[in-house]
UniProtKB/TrEMBL annotation, chain B:
This is Fe-S cluster assembly protein SufB. Pfam families: SUFBD_core, SufBD_N. Belongs to the iron-sulfur cluster assembly SufBD family. Residues 208-449 form the SUF system FeS cluster assembly SufBD core domain.
């Protein structure tokens, strides 16, 4: 098992958001998590990656045999957990190149690999840039500095490609993208599917799943997974929307 | 997460060691006899002594300024020793072989080897230890080009006409309280003279080290660039870790004749005191340059040390088309206080100035930018651009901006931009999610914030400055 979440409860500012979530992900699998706004989709990504203020109240998450909640944010990243942000933040004056080289080498160091030289890294970075259709000039620009929404999302995927994680959590990587950009993001993700790497694709819309075909689709509502199925479940959601869940979630609550 | 940022900026001061050197140190206290003794120690001509005494008498009538945004107990000028020199320097060593090895070791420990073959190629160094210059390297090579680079005490002996002609012309003896004090008691510093049409073949630098307890360091630097010449000069400074505050009141004067250029860079790392504000250097400095027609003066400073910094490197743009630049990074943490900035005085036509100031405040520190841009009545077509950015780390520090703009010429253009930002939890989370530890992350964010200024430093020192911020930000993250 790559990731095993058992009965996860988490609150933000005293309000319970995740209310007993269970999820098992095997190596190589792609799991889509769909659900209405406020269901706890982004919270799940933050709790798993260890963001401050998003600690688990109870429950466990085993990540490749380690207890995820015992690890610091950077230790989870070093263990191969990657989060593609919904709203990537800018770091002015720090070039993408510099930022990614430091990150890649920090992770390599933990794995006992030699750091990449500047030229080795540049070669990889150029390839990754091409894969997500960003001009090479983006390597020299400040991290997300002045990037458009679509460029920021593609930049996240470029980072994912360079860091070669075990588990990728994509937090609404499709939001705000036009069809062309969506295609680019999906291609970037698909190029990283190698039968070992696992993905959690968080999305509000079915659209992204036309391009990234999931093995499983889960519907998250009111802090729990209320329904799981294969890719056809996403299609169903597209037709019926989430309105039917409202009632069901309320029922579950009662 | 803010807690992690706080830890990441806890600081270790690497230059805080004390050198075991026997010194001749004056008893504490200040009166005319002390000034006469300093002058006699330096074997100065009568005119120099008179110049000092005139400054001293002015100083007695002046009041310590209190307008800066800094807070410290009143300085007792009678509890300071105004002269201290290693005993071994008394016989004036003629070569490096005769210099006390302990002194050489001190500079080596600071990363400044004084043996020419071990040094950074292309950088000549004047090493000033307390009140005297220990050694000045590469002098022969510089002399070939006609460049004079020597301790100012020596210049007073060897080039009295040059010193007499320029000393006090940019910063007059009674310019301000601390400049007047410096004029009375200055002990050493560097003198640089670049002849007409000469491009100085090397970077010049001076390293100031305060070692002795209870002494003040009062250095005086004078740089004269004749018509069409160029020089790049850098100063660095460190001091031992002590519980007592020590005063450093320097004066730097730059004279840039027609078509010349002076680039003056500072990496200031005086002991800042401990996290509770105990000890540290009071850095009260007057730096000013005068630019004649088509001349350019560029100040770049990286200020990471000192308990209190009071410093405004300025340009008087007297000649038409002259250019002034000020690039500054000031980092304060713990209980440090900085009130620093610049003055750009536009007198000539089409004069231009650029001010880029980056203030970083962390811990309980206070960081103020104070800048004056004055457009004189004859400054037709003059322009200034000011960018003033503050970065806050944590929520117990303060950043302040005091810009003064005076325009007496309707054709002059003044632009001022200011921003304040924080190292945000979002930025830190992004970095850590990519596998970087919090220390590395904060240091990277701060370095990025300073990039515009670092790129103005000479190559060798840009690396040093980046490292200094890294060391400064190093801490124990549990």
């Amino acid at each position: 098992m790559m990731l095993s979440i058992k009965d996860l409860h988490a609150s933000i500012d005293g309000k319970e958001i995740l209310k007993g979530l269970n999820l098992d992900i095997k190596p190589g699998e792609v799991h889509a998590i769909m659900g209405p706004n406020g269901a706890g989709k982004s919270t799940l990504g933050y709790v798993l990656s260890g963001r401050d203020g998003y600690e688990a109240d109870s429950g466990t998450a085993q990540f490749n045999g380690a207890d995820l909640f015992d690890l610091e944010v950077e230790e989870r990243a070093q263990a191969g957990l990657f989060l593609a942000f919904q709203y990537p933040v800018e770091i002015p004056g720090v070039s993408n190149m510099e930022f990614m080289k430091e990150s890649v080498n920090a992770i390599r160091e933990k794995r006992g690999d030699d750091p990449l030289s500047a030229s080795e890294f540049l070669k990889k970075a150029k390839e990754a840039c091409k894969q997500v259709d960003l001009p090479l000039a983006f390597l020299k620009r400040g991290v997300n500095e002045g990037f458009s929404g679509g460029e920021k999302k593609r930049n996240e995927i470029m980072q994912m490609i360079l860091l070669e994680p075990n588990l990728c959590i994509l937090d609404e990587s499709d939001s705000g993208l036009d069809v062309d950009a969506l295609q680019v993001v999906a291609n970037g993700v698909n190029s990283q599917r190698d039968g070992k790497r696992s993905f959690i694709v968080v999305t509000h819309y079915q659209r992204l799943l036309d391009y990234i075909e999931p093995d499983y689709v889960h519907i998250l509502a009111d802090g729990k997974i209320v329904k799981s199925g294969d890719a056809s479940l996403a299609k169903e959601v597209e037709k019926t929307g989430y309105a039917w869940l409202g009632a069901k979630a309320e029922e579950a609550d009662a | 997460m803010s807690e992690q940022i706080e830890q990441a900026i806890a600081r270790k001061y690497d230059a805080g060691f004390v050198s075991e050197v026997e010194s001749d140190t004056f008893a504490v206290g200040l009166d005319e006899s002390v000034i006469r003794r300093i002058s006699a120690m330096k074997n100065e001509p009568e005119w120099m002594l008179e110049w000092r005494l005139k400054a001293y008498r002015s100083w007695l009538k002046m009041d310590e300024p209190d307008w800066a945004h800094v807070d410290y107990p009143k300085i007792d000028f009678q509890s300071i020793s105004y002269y201290s020199a290693p005993k071994s320097m008394k016989d004036k060593p003629k070569s490096l072989d005769e210099v006390d090895p302990e002194l050489l070791r001190t500079y080596e420990k600071l990363g400044i080897p004084l043996h020419e073959q071990e040094m950074l190629a292309g950088v000549a160094v004047d090493a000033v230890f307390d009140s005297v210059s220990v050694v000045t390297t590469f002098r022969a090579k510089l002399e070939e080009a006609g460049v004079i680079f020597c301790p100012i005490s020596e210049a007073i002996q060897k080039y009295p006409d040059l010193v007499k002609k320029y000393l006090g012309t940019v910063v007059p003896q009674r310019d301000n309280y601390f400049a007047a004090l410096n004029s009375a008691v200055f002990t050493d510093g560097s003198f640089v003279y670049i002849p007409k049409g000469t491009r100085c073949p090397m970077e010049l630098s001076t390293y100031f080290r305060i070692n002795e307890l209870n002494t003040g360091q009062f250095e005086r630097t004078l740089i004269v660039a004749e018509e069409g010449s160029y020089v790049s000069y850098l100063e660095g400074c460190t001091a031992p870790q002590r519980d007592e505050n020590q005063l450093h009141a320097a004066v730097v004067e730059l004279v840039a004749m027609d078509d010349s250029e002076i680039k003056y860079s500072t990496v200031q790392n005086w002991y800042p005191g401990d996290e509770n504000g105990k000890g540290g250097i009071y850095n009260f400095v007057t730096k000013r340059g005068l630019a004649e027609t088509n001349a350019k003066i560029s100040w770049t400073q990286v200020e990471t040390g000192s308990a209190i910094t009071w410093k405004y490197p300025s340009c008087i743009l007297k000649g038409d088309n002259s250019v002034g630049e000020f690039y500054s990074v000031a980092l304060t943490r713990g209980r440090q206080q900085a009130d620093t900035g610049t003055k750009m005085i536009h007198m000539g036509k089409n004069t231009r100035s650029t001010i880029i100031s980056k203030g970083i405040s962390a811990g309980h520190s206070s960081n103020a930018y104070r800048g004056l841009v004055r457009m004189g009545p004859n400054a037709d077509g003059a322009r200034n651009f000011t960018e003033c950015d503050s970065l806050l780390i944590g929520d117990k520090c303060g950043a302040h901006t005091f810009p003064y703009i005076e325009s007496r010429n309707p054709s002059a253009i003044v632009e001022h931009e200011a921003t304040t930002s924080k190292v945000s939890d979002d930025q830190l989370f992004l970095c850590r999610q990519r596998g970087l530890d919090p220390e590395k992350a904060v240091s990277m964010i701060v370095n990025g914030f300073c990039k515009e200024v670092f790129k103005e430093l000479p190559m060798e020192f840009a690396v040093e400055a980046g490292k200094l911020l890294e060391i400064s930000l190093e801490g124990s993250v549990g």
